[in-house]
Amino acid sequence: MCDNSGHLPVLPNQVCDLLDPQQGDVIVDLTAGRGGHAELLAKRAGENATVILFDLDAENLQFATSRLEKLGISVESHHESFVTAASTLTRAGIQAHCVLADLGFSSNQMDDPIRGFSFGSDGPLDMRLDSSKGTTAADLVNSLSEKELADTIYFLGEEPYSRRIAQKITLERQEKPILHTARLAQLVRDAYGARAHSSRLHPATRTFMALRIAVNAELDALDALLLDVETGGRKVDSGGWLHPTAKIAVISFHSLEDRRVKQSFVALEKSELAKRLTRKPIRATDEEKSFNPRSRPAKLRVVQLGS
Ligand SMILES: C[S@@+](CC[C@H](N)C(=O)[O-])C[C@H]1O[C@@H](n2cnc3c(N)ncnc32)[C@H](O)[C@@H]1O
Q1: Model confidence over 35-79: pLDDT tens digits?
Q2: Hey, which of 106, 109, 128, 215 would you mutate to test ligand 1's pocket, going by the most ligand atoms within 8 Å of its Cβ?
Q3: What are φ and ψ of residue 68, in 5° steps?
Q4: Superfamily of domain covering 130-215
C-alpha cells in the first residue's frame, strides 16, 4: 500500500524519535526516495533545518526535492550514490547532525514494469536504480558464465536452487537472449519444477533480489558507506562530514545488509567512537506491517557519535 507519493516510509515514528532532529540541524537523507522520511524529519526539526538529499534515481530525487520545497523546507539535492556523499559534504564543509540510509528500492520503482524490478508484471530486465548508466540485469543474465550466475544467485539471493536455475538460464539463452522479466521468472519457475508448488515465496523472489543487488553493487555501496561513517567518526574535529554528536540510522531489508550494519555499529562502539542507540534492531509493529507490508523485513539500527 502507498500514499500518493507512491511509497510509504517504513518505521516513520521510530526513525524520527531516534534521530530526534533539532532546530538548525543538517539532516542528510542518503536515500531520498519519495521524500517521506525527509519530510517527517524536517518537520520534526522545525523551521531552520537544512535537508540534503542523495539518490541514484533522478526521478525520485526530483520528486522528493519538490515535495520539500513546496513546504518551504531548505533543501539541497545530489543525483549521486551515497558512496560519494562523505566526500561531497566534506568538500562543501558541511557536517551532518542526522543521517538516514533507508536501503534498497522504493515501492514506485518496484511497481513500474519499465524498471524491471518485479516478476509480477512483464518489462525489460533492467533493475538499475540509476537508469541513465551502468550494467542491466539483462546484461548479467546473458553474459555471466553458468558458475558466475549460480554464485551470484546463491550468495546474494541465498537461493538453494541457484545451480539448477543458472543451468536453466544458460541453456535457454542459447536459443535467444533473456530480455524480459516474465521470461526470466518463468525460467526460474521451470527450474524449481514441482517444488514451485510448495515454495512459500514466488520461486523467482530470491533470483530477482540477487540480480538487483548485483546490478547496483548494493553491498559494496553499503560497505563503503559504513567505512565513511567510521572515518567520519574519527575526523569529527578535523572537518569530517559528521558532526561530533551525529546520529546515523540505517534501515535494511535483508540479512546480508543487516549483518554488515550490526557488525559495523558494534565495532564503532568498541572503539569508543559511537554508542548504539538500538541494542537490537527496531522492527515494525503488527499494525504497521498490516497496512505497509514492505515494513515486514525492515530492521532499523541507529548509532550516535561520541562515547
Ligand atoms: C527505500 S527507498 C527510500 C524511501 C524514502 N526513505 C522515502 O521515505 O520515500 C530507497 C531509495 O534509495 C535509492 N538508493 C538505493 N541505493 C542508493 C545509493 N547507493 N545511493 C543513492 N541512492 C540509493 C533508491 O533509488 C531509492 O530511491
Answers
A1: 999 999 999 998 789 999 999 999 999 999 999 999 999 999 999
A2: 106
A3: -75, -40
A4: Putative methyltransferase TM0872, insert domain (1.10.150.170)
